[in-house]
């Protein structure tokens, strides 16, 4: 077992540097506030995962008259 220091990471919300500590219940965020701010951004759709627009065939062309 090695005695390496935990890595230093940045909070994805505020950018504050902190040690990656497995006892931090808010990680990867530095605090509960940053975690809730991020959650609020997802809930208000400030963050989106882009998806290319899908083109569907005309519904009438599948079944000719």
Provide a compact summary of the structure.
By secondary structure, the chain is α+β, with helices and mostly antiparallel strands. 25% of the residues lie in helices and 9% in strands.
Describe this protein's structure:
The longest helix is centred in the middle third of the chain and has 12 residues, at 32-43. 25% of the residues lie in helices and 9% in strands. The chain has one domain (1-47): 2-Layer Sandwich (Erythroid Transcription Factor GATA-1, Chain A). It is an alpha+beta fold. The chain starts with 7 loop residues before the first strand and ends with a helix. A two-stranded antiparallel sheet has the order 1-2. Strand 1 and strand 2 form a beta hairpin.
Strand content: 5-15%
Distance between the terminal alpha carbons, to the nearest Å?
74 Å
Question: Which stretches of 5+ consecutive residues score pLDDT under 50?
Answer: none
In the sheet with the most strands, the strands line up as 1-2
CATH superfamily: Erythroid Transcription Factor GATA-1, subunit A
Judging from the principal axes of the Cα atoms, what is the shape? elongated
Overall average residue pLDDT: 86
Succession of helices and strands: EEHH
Described by strand count, sense and barrel closure, the largest sheet is: 2 strands, antiparallel
Count of runs of 4 or more consecutive helical residues: 2
Supply the helix-strand structural class: alpha+beta
The CATH architecture comes to 2-Layer Sandwich
Enter the CATH topology name.
Answer: Erythroid Transcription Factor GATA-1, Chain A
Total domain units: 1
| Overall CATH class | Alpha Beta
- Rounded to the nearest angstrom, the radius of gyration is 22 Å
């Amino acid at each position: 077992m090695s005695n390496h220091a935990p890595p230093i990471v940045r909070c994805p919300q505020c950018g504050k540097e902190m040690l990656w500590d497995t006892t931090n219940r808010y990680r990867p965020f530095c605090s509960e506030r940053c975690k809730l701010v991020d959650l609020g951004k997802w809930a208000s759709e400030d963050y989106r995962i882009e998806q290319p627009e899908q083109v569907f065939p005309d519904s009438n062309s599948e079944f000719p008259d």
